[in-house]
Amino acid sequence: MKTLMLGNEAFARGLYEAGCKVVSSYPGTPSTEITEAAAKYDEIYAEWAPNEKVAMEVALGASIAGVRSFCGMKHVGLNVAADPLYTAGYTGVTGGMVIAVADDPGMHSSQNEQDSRHHAAASKTMMIEPSDSAECKEFTKMAFELSERFDVPVIVRMSTRVSHSQSAVELCDREEREPIPYKKDAAKYVMMPGNAIRRHPIVEDRMAAIAEYGEDCPLNTVEDNGAEIGVITAGICYQYAKEALGDKVNYLKLGIVNPMPVKIIKDFAAKCSKVYVIEELDDVIETHCRKNGVTVQGKELFGWLGEISQTKIREKILGIKPEYDTFGDTVPVRPPVMCAGCPHRGLFYCLSKLKVNVSGDIGCYTLGATAPLCAMDSTICMGASVSALHGFNKALGAEAEKKSVAVIGDSTFMHSGMTGLVNIAYNATNSTVIILDNSITGMTGHQQNPTTGKNLKGDPAAAVNLEELCHAIGIKSVRVVDPYHMAETEKVIKEELEKEEPSVIISRRPCALLKYVKHKPALRCDKDKCVGCKQCLKIGCPAISIHDKKMVIDHTQCVGCGICTEMCKVGAIVE
Amino acid sequence: METKSIMIVGVGGQGSLLASRIIGNVLLSQGFDVKVSEVHGMSQRGGSVVTYVKYGDKVYSPVVELGEADIIISFEQLEAARYVQYLKKGGHIVVSTQQIDPMPVITGAAVYPEDIIGKLKAQGIDVIDVDALTLAEQAGTSKASNVVLMGVVSTKMDFDESVWQQALEHCVPPKFLELNKKAFALGREAG
Fold it and tell me: Is the CB of residue A253 less than 8 Å away from at least one CB of chain B?
């Protein structure tokens, strides 16, 4: 029977059917649901690791032990895991090892638009790219076989549209596999120079063998429609091209995007009068074609930015533009905002009021950068808030220390913020770091982390005590505030900024969307008391607006957090 | 059959994922090839959200582009105005009359356009407007306005009501099923 599955769910099904035993990942949109779905199969051990580097090392350890293993992450997560990846390229595997990396063309939920195929090429590993849910499952199963056959970690490149689109999948049974008996093999797994030097030629031979395999394999397919025009493509772009061009062109769909074959491309191009390369994001296939003397057109037509689409392809190749009507009036934008009742709001209002420099980080609280709070000066990557604050303060000295803070979520702090805090303590700046502890990994849709006391399956687990951890790192001044109490929060921030020592403020209040969080009834505005001063608008709550010069609270959104009552000077906001 | 496209638009948190899953299930049960595309993560937090449902003999791209949607289901008026450019000529818009001010309107940086539904109709577009929020509250919770809209949409698509009921049973947790069936029925009446 066919079932509708997200690409990510189908990927997890592939892990299950292939007999994968160990899964370790760090959440990151659009990759998160692979691991969440894998955790639902009792036969698979699945965990959230503190970061992607740890996750990949866990997966490699499991592979060395002789079982099939997996780790999943978003594109920027692969940068964090690049260190183990590049050497796993040398060691190879024992049990099959598969890595999911989900790129985010168009940056629906990311800070950059990097193309992960460069990592596959640079780490000399194999990368394959599915184009729909059925392929997500089948490619994953093949990835394990190829990993074992060629002694290589296999990366499956996902993208937002593949990960988050549902399409039909045919389910099969799981194939249980006995672990490959462990045998010590220091020459393969102890990567010190003497051994690594001997591994490198093996790696080069292996990559040549995979490229050769790609010349005639089920992953790289030619669709000959007897047309003049040829399209070389991979992943989701194949689907866009098929929709736009149908059988008006011939297709070479590359399932293996690293290493790429040569002969099949040359033969395909030789039969066409014109060949287009359609790929997201960089010119990886295009460059490969050119390097091998095949004339193609690609980026000069489709550009370097964002997603490809059927419309773009129709326009560039067929010259057909879409026809549509627009709304006659200006439509205001609707950017994402912190939810009503979000504990981050109170904290960011204080920071905005104090006009401090805020070194930001990755999570829901990045929305503190948006109007009307506008309380963020920089956001770079996971953990950078803490380390960049130290650098900022070292550069500008005491003046900066007294008016700048870092903000970082609980999960992000565990991921890579705490090493920055070690640096602050060790190399001594009087920096003030605020940990926004909302008891969950929020932005990616509520995943447990080492501070929450629960594991991926929801079972009780050891919980890191943030206060004790900060003390142990060498921070003497560690204070806890409730961001729903803004006056107290503001007072504590001021005090810590003044101190001649590094300090940590833990802003602690669970995410308002957590199921166990009990909400108060929605508040309402007493219209007789409201003077229309608009002070309440300054906290940027989506439940609050002004109509007919009076405040209105949307009862479907308000969760009664009450921080707006601190803003109202006339007591017009009532239960 | 030529591929048909449905777009579900609204504000993050309004329940468009459930709506797209219900429609996806209805279509799969009718033997169509189906693709449903969702948006997760940053773009979900109270921002403008879009999901796509496409069906036919064989669906390729999961994405609906400008001028391609046969039906747009909008959970909020402003979002209907934002995405009307995705409507195919002769397509239908089903819109909940609910208004949610976006942050630029709240802060006074922008104005919420007046009489969006009237203007859309004046452009010659087939608009079915429903007070889905009130109907959902009648059914028991404001959260069910997504299923009210499914009830409305069901009158615009040529499938037996029992097929929709089965999809509801498949997609909604048992403890909320009765409530959602009521919401669906109210939507169907209004449609």
Answer: no
